[in-house]
What does this fold into?
Amino acid sequence: MEIIHFSAECYPVAKVGGLGDVVGALPKYQNKLGHVAKVVMPAYDTKFLHQNEFEVVYDGWVRLGYNNLPVRIFREKTNKLGFDLFLVHIAGLLDREKVYGYADDTERFIAYQIASLDWIAQWEHKPDVMHCHDHHTGLIPFMVGNSHIYRHLNHIPTFLTIHNAQYQGQFGWDKLHYLPAYDLRNSSKLDWGNSINPLASAIKCAWRVTTVSPSYLDEISYKANGLENLLAQERGKSFGILNGIDNEVWNPQKDQMLNKAFTNRTVESGKKANKDALCDVFNLDKTKPLYTFIGRLVGEKGADLLPDIFWNALQQSDGEINILVLGSGDPDVEDRLNEITHYHAGNYNAYIGYNEALSHQIYAGADFLLMPSRVEPCGLNQMYALRYGTIPIVRRIGGLKDTVTDIGDGGFGICHDQSNIWDVNHAIGRAYELYLDQKRVKEIRKFIMTIDHSWDRAAQQYIDLYQM
Ligand SMILES: Nc1ncnc2c1ncn2[C@@H]1O[C@H](COP(=O)(O)OP(=O)(O)O[C@H]2O[C@H](CO)[C@@H](O)[C@H](O)[C@H]2O)[C@@H](O)[C@H]1O
It folds into this structure.
């Protein structure tokens, strides 16, 4: 099958969070199964663009409202990522440093979607599947099914994967003129709550909808930032497929970013070397358990609770634990997390910012990873933690529920029910008790490193779904 993935992110080209990891891996694993999966994404002004070789495969114009903008599509020449990568270049609109966060994001992603379809519409052959990821690509199913200019594509099955239903990309009907002409009687397929809502539109128009874990599929019927009823209505064509992880990128045995590579046989010495190095850099106590949080500092991740959780834990433990945070997001949370460093230096530190290599070093060097998420469609961090022998402490929600079993239930993690300070502090205490039983900790580490969360299984599940 020929599968085209449309996405705003793809690791290592451009990554803000988990979407980038998924789109950087799933196509590679689909190709390994004998298919031809490709990625079409915006050409941002990132390092990857400057450090790799590209050829031009398309030169054209994209019509955005009353403007015609020049478009160029580049193909990466060497198949470096294990799949064909196409970058849509629109000067002045897409070629910026950041992926998101601009006032004209709506226009940027509409232009990217139209330009991608214009290009594909003039191919001699047609792909078998068009797979859209999140709201930035959510207008594609509507445009393909309803715009006269894409009538040659309208027999191609479209898929939507929801990585996070919190973000929907809504914009006002005053921007309708940016979209290619369609029969206005079909406007209800774009509308949700009197706005044009790309995620809602994709849920309505895509042939199939998937979520990134089975539990999240259940949860969004009652908690989906206003889309609950729609998702419940479309449940018949919706499926939950648990994300995998890229075992080649996240491989503690070969990871070049670590201070010391290790396997599950050498996990004790490997973890110690990586932990010692982190403790040296961040002024932490090597002899004490190291808890960490890695992620976007936003409400969904429970990040606003972290400062209080850490104050409590550090005070209650009286110097017996370490905490290291890596993240960026809400400036208020960033400040509050930084502030703790002044009071608990030696046991606490925070790196505010984005640092891919440091994230690998922390997954490898930490003893426990905290994920007190309010919403977690899948969560990749807990799976990276497991692969690097780090015990996850997670709220039982979404993909966390599907991947972590509590030690009290014969499992290997610490689970709690609510995303609140008391539950998380209690979980931190349980982890500390566990840490004192080093024999058990060693057994758990050895075991969790063997759990297979690679993409092999999920890549096949997507193929099966395309063929249904
Ligand atoms: N400051 C920082 N420095 C370095 N690395 C950082 C970082 N902050 C985050 N990361 C990395 O970004 C990724 C985050 O992955 P998640 O799955 O937790 O995220 P996210 O909420 O973005 O994704 C959404 O999509 C994914 C994919 O489907 C779902 O798993 C998830 O539940 C859903 O919310 C991990 O690779 C993590 O290491």
User: Anything to note?
Assistant: Residues 93 and 108 are 6 Å apart (CA to CA). Residues 105-121 form the longest helix (17 residues).
